[in-house]
Design goal:
Helix content is 35%, strand content 16%. It has helices at 3-8, 14-20, 58-61, 70-82, 94-106, 120-137, 158-162, 201-210, 234-247, 299-307, 323-337, 340-356, 385-394, 416-431, and strands spanning 37-41, 44-47, 52-55, 111-117, 145-149, 182-184, 214-219, 223-224, 230-231, 250-254, 278-281, 293-298, 365-371, 374-379, 397-398, 405-408. Bound molecules: pyridoxal-5'-phosphate (PLP).
Length: 446
Amino acid sequence: MNSEKQMNNPFIDHDFDKEHLWHPYTSMHNPLPAYGVVSAEGVELTLDNGMKLIDGTSSWWACVHGYSHPNIVSAMQQQTAQLSHVMFGGLTHRPAVELARILVDMTSERLTKVFLADSGSIAVEVAMKMALQYWQGRDKPNKQKILTVKSGYHGDTFAAMSVCDPEGGMHTMFGELVTEQLFAPAPTSRFAESFDAKELLPISNMFEDNHQQIAAVLIEPIMQGAGGMRFYHPEYLSALRKLCDKYDVLLILDEIATGFGRTGKLFGYEHANIEADILCLGKALTGGYISLAATMCSDEVAEGVSDSPAGVFMHGPTFMGNPLACTAAIASLELINQQKWQNQVAHIESQLRAELADAVNYTHVVDVRVLGAVGVLEMSSTLNTAELQQQFVDLGVWIRPFSNLIYIMPPYTISSEQLTQLTRAMKKVASQLTLPSHRSQFISHG
Ligand SMILES: *Cc1c(COP(=O)(O)O)cnc(C)c1O
């Protein structure tokens, strides 16, 4: 079969898929259904049965400019022909240099060094390694623990799992392979409400008691994503920055979901006017076209790492700095730098507020919340993802609930009519819900 034929052939072997392919967080016994996609353009996915779905997920926070954007596609096509990949050990190339320059310019002043990683989870691993090596280089090798908060989500690799929510996450499944970290209660004061300073007591005490062991605080700024879609108060974040300074602890911000405009600011930390020592980026970094992540750090962190006994930073994946991925990121960030996202996200936010507000009156809705281009209906108990997924597909939208949450984070380019179709579908499904009484033991991020 020639490649053109393959591209035009919409047939997807669903039986083979079911029998042989793992999908995220599924069982091979009775896998959740997987719908076949043949193409996507703008904010629409085309299924293999010809149906078109409006995308409410941005493919998990990533596809902020919509699908098949001509700038990103043509940049990637040219780069593929010129240099798809080359090892980064001992070699460099324009896409990596150009991307690093854009990232250093875009992020806060302190962040000057860029490590290019292959996925978000790896960016988190790299950040944690940097923090530990930093303290080795500053003659405090006992600083090895990470302090974080409950309800967080930072990825699925072992170190990343160790800082995910201890109940919703996977801590108990793998025994000692998952390092024990320090967990403070999740932030409680909500984003736009008054700040209750009392909530800082437990975490302040943890700093006080354990700072000699704490290498870094690691947290998702302002929005906790896959751990529960919670929006917390910026003062919590600025207080953390102060505690880190007071107790000589690094601050790692995981902006993998919040970065590049999603919460209404370019980065979540801008809501609190603070700077990180180490910053993790991913997901929307390439506009959702190909996997790439980055871990940025300050001069001070980079110097400490380089002063460590190893003398070098101990990480270097095969596909580090992949030119194709860097090119997608450059094209995506050029679009971000045109600043259209600001109006788009502001518009999405006000429309979500207006259209979702009355859902709070539905029997099973316990909370409605909106921040930036994120809209959440929290339900009174765990949802049946497969069943609801089918209802959403029948309504012509792609929305994927998890745990007890029906939520959307659409591409910034969505039109108001398309957004209304999403909010209508959310409300329709939420209002017609009949809920099972049990709660599942683990939150599935899928
Ligand atoms: C998705 C996510 C990760 C993990 O990124 P992957 O690319 O899926 O490995 C880490 N942190 C946060 C906040 C995320 O949302």
